[in-house]
C-alpha cells in the first residue's frame, strides 16, 4: 500500500553519487541573487544522477567543462536529472533565486526591511535545494567552499567554517569561507547583513583557542551577554559530561527577527531567532532568559550529536533531536534544582506530547512515512525521543551510559547513521538497550496500571501496561518500562526500600521482602522522577498522596502527588479540597526557603488543553474551564489568611540570576494572582506597586498580567505604559501582545483587534504566534464559532505566506473530533473549506490526517 507523494522509510536507498567538494558562489543583487555552484561528484552505485531543486531558475549548466543542452538533462519542479553521467562528474550550475520575496523563510531569504534588512539561510531539512541544485539529503557529506558577494551596505558576509579570503570590488565586496568538516547540505548557512558583533574566546580541553562571535544589530548587541556565557558553559559541559570538544577555530551565532523555529545548528554558524539569543533582565522574563541558555546549549550540543554524527535520512530525525534535547535537559538541570527541571520537562511533555500522541497526528518517534518532513519536527520526535534516551541512560547508570556514548562517537564520527546504530553502540554494556527499539516504532502513550498487596513484612507491587492501538499501525506490543519505586514507612516517613523495576510484559509483579512494616500501611512511590513517559494509574488513596508530599525525598514525585490530587478534584473523583490546601499550608513555608521555585510549581494546575485529554467524546470546554476556575478560587479562598503574608515575605530585591532569586520571583507572581483571586484588601495596590518597583521584566510582566487577568481599574493605563516604555523592542512588544491575548477576560473580538493592528506583521512568525497560541490555549474561545473563524482565516492566510508556520498552528486543533456534535460540525466544515483552498503540502497533509480521525 504505497500512497503517491508519501515517502517511506522502507524505500530508503543509498545515494548513487557522493559529493567530494562543493564550490559555491552566492552573489546578492538589489532584487535577486545568482548562485554559481560546482559539485565534484563520484559515482557510488548504478543509477541516475539526480539533483534536487525547487523554485530555481536554471541559467546555465555544464558537465565536466562541457555546456549541456536541453536534451542532456530532464528538469521538473522538484529535480534535475543528468543523462549519461560518467563516474566522475563535475557539475556546474548557475541559477537565479529571489530571496527578497521568499516569505517561507526556507532557503536564502530576506529578513527585516529597510535599514535592518539582512539575508540569511535556513536549510534544514530541505531548504538547500531552494538555493542550488544538489543531492539534498543528509547522507551526502561534502566539503564546502563558499564565496559570498554583495553590496558594501552589507558589511557582514558569513558562511560555515574558516574565513580564508576577503576582497574589495568597488561598491561591492566578497568573502570566502572554507568548511573542512564534511557536512550534509542541511547544515549549510550563509549570512549577508549589517550587524555588530560581540566577541569572546574559549580554549577547549584539547587546547584549541576558539573565537566566539554573536552577531546582532547595534541596538541589540548589549543583549548578547547571557547567550555568550551560556555558550561557554555549554562548551565546558560537553567536554566534562560527554568528552566532546569543539572542532573549528570559530563559532558564530547570528540573531534574526524572522525565523520559523527557535534556532538552527548550522556548522560553525548557528542562526537564531532573536527570541532565543537576546536577553537582559530588563527586557526578558526569567523563563525567556532560561530559554536562551538552553537553546544555545541545544544548538551547541548538536555539533556532536547531529553534525559530526548525523542522520542517514529524515526518518531518523530523533537520532539527533531526541538525544540533543536529553543532553540539553541535563545541562539545564545543572543550573537549577533537579526537581524543578524534571517538573518543567514533564509538565511540557504531558501538556503537548501526550496530547499529540492521543490525536490524529500521533506517530512513532521514528515515523515510517511522511508527505512533508517539515511536519515532523514534533513534540513526539523531540520530547518523547528525549524520554527514550533518558530511560536508557537511567537503565545503564552513569558509567555505562558514558561508555555507550563514547562508543557511539568512536564508531560513527563523520557518518550518517540510524537509530539501530545508536542503540547498538549504547548496548555494549547491557544488551537490554536493544529492546528499546520498540519505543521508537510504536505510537501512543502507554498506560501503566498498578497497585500493591501487603503480606506481613512483604509488599508486592502489581503492574500492567496497555497502549492504544493507533489506526494504520501494527497492534501494540509490551514495551520495556522502567518504574523507579520507593517504599516509605507510613508513620515516620523513613525510606525503607528503593528499586528500579522493569516492566517488560503486559503484566508483572515485583516483591519487596523483609520490610520493617510493623503492621503500618506503608507509602509507595512509583514512577519516581517520571522514570518512563507513561500515563500512570496507581491505586493511591488521597491520604497516601498527601503522605507522599510530606515523605518523598525526590521533588518530582512530591509535585506529582499534588498534581494527582488536583486532577482528582478537577475530574470530580474527589471533593475534599481541604486535603490539598492543608498540605500546601504546611509545606509552602519551608519550601519557600529551600526551593522557592518548587514551592511555586506546587500551585500548578493542568492547563485546559491538557485536561481536555480526559475526553474522547463530548468534550465541553466550558465545563472544564468552570471546574478549573472553581478550583483556583477554592484554593485562593482556603489560603486567604496566609497568601498575603507569604507575598509580603518576598519583597522586591535587587536583581540576581540565581535559582533562588528566580524561584522567588516566580512564587511572588503566583502568590500575587492567588491574593487577587482571594480579593484581599489592598491587593490591587500590590499589583501596581510591583510593576512600579520592578527590578526586572519577570516582576513587571507578572504584575501586568495579573492586572489584566483581574480586570483592575488601572490595567489599561499600565498596558499603555508598557507599550510606550518598550515600543522599540520587538521581543518585548511580542510579550505585550501575548500577555493580553492570553488573558481569559480578553475575548475573541479583542484578539482579532490585536491582529488588525499595523504592528501585527504576518511575515514575522514570532508576532503571529503571540495571538494564535494564546487563542489555542483558551479552548472556550478557540472552539467558538467566532474563535474558529478567526483561527481558520489566519490559517488560510499563513498557508500562502509560510506553510511551516501554518501547519504548526493547525496542529493545535488535533483533538477537534472529541468535541460535541454541534461544535464538531463547525470544525469539520472549516477543515473541508481549508482543504479546498490550501496549497501547501504541509497544511494539506495535516488537514487530511485530521479529517480521517
Ligand atoms: N534543528 C533544529 C531547528 C530546525 C528544526 C530547523 C526544523 C528547521 C526545521 C534545532 O536544533 C532545534 O531543534 N531547535 C529547537 C529548539 C530546541 C531547544 C528544542 C527550536 O527551534 O524550537
Ligand atoms: Zn535540535
TrEMBL record:
GO terms for molecular function: alanyl aminopeptidase activity. It is an enzyme of class 3 (hydrolase). It catalyses: Release of an N-terminal amino acid, Xaa-|-Yaa- from a peptide, amide or arylamide. Xaa is preferably Ala, but may be most amino acids including Pro (slow action). When a terminal hydrophobic residue is followed by a prolyl residue, the two may be released as an intact Xaa-Pro dipeptide. Residues 543-851 form the Peptidase M1 alanyl aminopeptidase C-terminal domain. Residues 96-187 form the Aminopeptidase N-like N-terminal domain. Its EC number is 3.4.11.2. Residues 227-429 form the Peptidase M1 membrane alanine aminopeptidase domain. Keywords: Aminopeptidase, Hydrolase, Metal-binding, Metalloprotease, Protease, Zinc. Residues 444-538 form the Peptidase M1 alanyl aminopeptidase Ig-like fold domain. Gene3D superfamilies: 2.60.40.1840, 3.30.2010.30, Neutral Protease Domain 2 (1.10.390.10), Peptidase M1, alanyl aminopeptidase, C-terminal domain (1.25.50.10), tricorn interacting facor f3 domain (2.60.40.1730). Its cofactor is Zn(2+). Belongs to the peptidase M1 family. This is Aminopeptidase N. It comes from Moraxella oculi.
Amino acid at each position: 500500500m504505497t500512497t503517491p507523494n508519501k515517502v517511506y522509510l522502507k524505500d530508503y536507498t543509498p545515494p548513487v553519487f557522493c559529493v567530494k567538494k562543493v564550490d559555491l558562489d552566492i552573489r546578492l543583487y538589489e532584487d535577486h541573487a545568482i548562485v554559481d555552484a560546482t559539485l565534484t561528484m563520484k559515482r557510488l552505485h548504478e543509477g541516475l544522477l539526480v539533483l534536487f531543486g525547487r523554485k530555481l531558475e536554471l541559467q546555465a549548466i555544464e558537465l565536466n567543462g562541457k555546456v549541456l543542452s536541453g536534451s542532456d538533462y530532464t528538469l521538473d519542479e522538484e529535480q534535475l536529472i543528468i543523462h549519461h553521467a560518467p563516474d566522475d562528474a563535475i557539475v556546474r550550475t548557475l541559477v537565479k533565486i529571489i530571496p527578497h520575496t521568499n516569505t517561507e523563510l526556507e532557503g536564502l531569504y530576506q529578513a527585516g526591511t529597510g535599514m535592518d534588512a539582512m539575508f540569511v539561510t535556513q536549510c534544514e531539512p530541505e531548504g538547500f535545494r531552494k538555493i542550488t541544485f544538489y543531492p539534498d539529503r543528509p547522507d551526502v557529506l561534502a566539503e564546502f567552499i563558499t564565496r559570498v558577494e554583495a553590496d558594501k551596505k552589507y558589511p557582514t558576509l558569513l558562511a560555515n567554517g574558516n574565513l580564508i579570503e576577503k576582497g574589495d570590488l568597488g561598491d561591492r565586496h566578497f568573502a570566502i569561507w572554507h568548511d573542512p568538516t564534511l557536512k550534509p547540505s542541511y547544515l549549510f548557512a550563509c549570512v549577508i547583513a549589517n550587524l555588530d558583533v560581540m566577541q569572546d574566546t574559549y580554549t577547549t580541553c584539547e587546547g584549541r583557542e576558539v573565537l566566539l562571535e554573536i552577531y546582532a544589530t547595534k541596538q541589540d548587541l548589549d543583549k548578547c551577554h547571557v547567550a555568550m556565557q551560556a555558550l561557554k558553559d555549554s562548551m565546558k559541559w560537553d567536554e566534562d559530561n560527554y568528552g566532546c570538544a569543539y572542532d573549528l577555530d570559530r563559532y558564530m551565532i547570528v540573531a534574526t527577527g524572522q525565523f520559523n523555529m527557535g534556532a538552527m545548528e548550522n556548522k560553525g554558524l548557528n542562526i537564531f531567532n532573536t527570541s532565543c539569543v537576546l536577553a537582559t533582565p530588563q527586557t526578558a522574563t526569567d523563563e525567556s532568559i532560561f530559554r536562551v541558555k538552553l537553546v544555545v546549549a541545544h544548538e551547541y550540543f548538536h555539533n556532536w550529536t547531529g553534525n559530526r554524527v548525523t542522520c542517514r535520512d529524515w526518518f531518523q530525525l530523533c537520532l539527533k533531536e531526541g538525544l540533543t534535547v536529553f543532553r540539553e535537559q541535563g545541562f539545564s538541570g545543572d543550573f537549577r534544582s533537579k526537581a524543578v527541571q524534571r517538573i518543567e520537562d514533564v509538565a511540557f511533555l504531558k501538556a503537548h506530547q501526550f496530547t499529540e500522541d492521543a490525536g490524529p497526528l500521533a506517530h512513532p518517534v521514528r515515523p515510517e512515512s511522511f508527505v512533508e518532513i517539515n511536519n515532523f519536527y514534533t513534540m513526539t520526535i523531540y520530547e518523547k525521543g528525549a524520554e527514550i534516551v533518558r530511560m536508557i541512560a537511567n537503565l545503564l547508570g552513569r558509567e555505562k551510559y558514558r561508555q555507550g556514548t563514547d562508543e557511539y562517537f568512536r564508531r560513527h564520527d563523520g557518518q550518517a547513521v540510524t537509530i539501530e546504530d545508536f542503540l547498538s553502540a549504547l548496548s555494549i554494556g547491557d544488551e537490554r538497550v536493544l529492546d528499546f527499539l520498540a519505543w521508537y516504532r510504536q505510537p501512543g502513550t502507554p498506560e501503566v496500571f498498578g497497585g500493591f498487596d501487603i503480606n506481613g513484612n512483604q509488599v508486592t507491587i502489581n503492574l500492567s501496561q496497555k497502549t492504544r492501538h493507533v489506526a494504520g499501525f501494527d497492534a501494540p506490543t509490551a514495551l520495556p518500562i522502567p518504574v523507579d519505586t520507593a517504599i516509605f514507612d507510613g508513620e515516620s516517613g523513613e525510606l525503607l526500600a528503593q528499586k528500579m523495576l522493569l516492566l517488560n510484559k503486559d503484566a508483572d509483579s515485583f516483591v519487596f521482602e523483609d520490610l520493617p512494616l510493623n503492621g503500618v500501611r506503608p507509602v509507595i512511590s512509583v514512577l519516581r522522577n517520571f522514570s518512563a513517559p507513561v500515563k500512570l494509574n496507581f491505586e493511591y488513596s488521597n491520604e497516601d498522596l498527601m503522605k507522599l508530599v510530606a515523605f518523598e525525598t525526590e521533588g518530582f514525585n512530591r509535585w506529582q502527588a499534588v498534581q494527582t490530587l488536583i486532577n482528582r478534584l478537577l475530574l470530580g473523583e474527589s471533593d475534599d479540597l481541604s486535603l490539598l490546601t492543608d498540605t500546601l499550608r504546611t509545606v509552602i513555608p519551608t519550601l519557600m526557603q529551600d526551593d522557592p521555585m518548587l514551592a511555586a510549581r506546587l500551585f500548578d494546575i493542568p492547563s485546559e488543553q491538557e485536561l481536555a485529554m480526559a475526553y474522547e467524546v463530548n468534550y465541553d470546554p466550558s465545563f472544564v474551564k468552570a471546574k478549573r476556575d472553581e478550583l483556583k478560587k477554592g484554593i485562593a479562598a482556603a489560603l486567604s489568611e496566609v497568601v498575603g503574608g507569604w507575598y509580603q515575605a518576598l519583597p522586591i530585591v535587587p536583581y540576581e540570576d540565581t535559582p533562588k532569586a528566580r524561584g522567588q520571583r516566580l512564587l511572588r507572581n503566583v502568590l500575587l494572582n492567588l491574593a487577587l483571586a482571594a480579593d484581599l484588601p489592598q491587593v490591587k495596590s500590590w499589583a501596581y506597586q510591583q510593576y512600579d518597583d520592578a527590578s526586572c521584566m519577570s516582576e513587571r510582566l507578572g504584575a501586568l498580567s495579573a492586572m489584566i487577568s483581574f480586570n483592575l481599574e488601572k490595567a489599561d493605563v499600565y498596558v499603555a505604559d508598557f507599550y510606550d516604555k518598550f515600543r522599540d523592542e520587538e521581543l518585548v512588544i511580542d510579550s505585550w501582545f501575548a500577555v493580553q491575548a492570553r488573558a481569559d477576560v480578553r475575548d475573541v473580538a479583542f484578539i482579532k483587534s490585536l491582529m488588525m493592528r499595523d504592528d501585527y506583521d504576518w511575515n514575522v512568525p514570532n508576532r503571529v504566534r503571540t495571538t494564535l497560541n494564546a487563542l489555542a490555549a483558551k479552548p472556550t474561545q478557540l472552539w467558538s464559532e467566532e474563535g474558529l473563524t478567526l483561527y481558520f482565516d489566519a490559517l488560510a492566510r499563513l498557508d500562502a505566506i509560510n506553510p511551516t508556520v501554518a501547519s504548526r498552528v493547525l496542529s493545535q486543533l488535533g483533538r477537534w473530533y472529541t468535541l460535541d456534535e454541534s461544535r464538531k460540525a463547525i470544525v469539520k466544515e472549516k477543515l473541508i473549506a481549508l482543504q479546498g483552498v490550501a496549497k501547501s503540502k504541509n497544511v494539506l497533509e495535516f488537514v487530511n490526517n485530521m479529517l480521517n480521525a
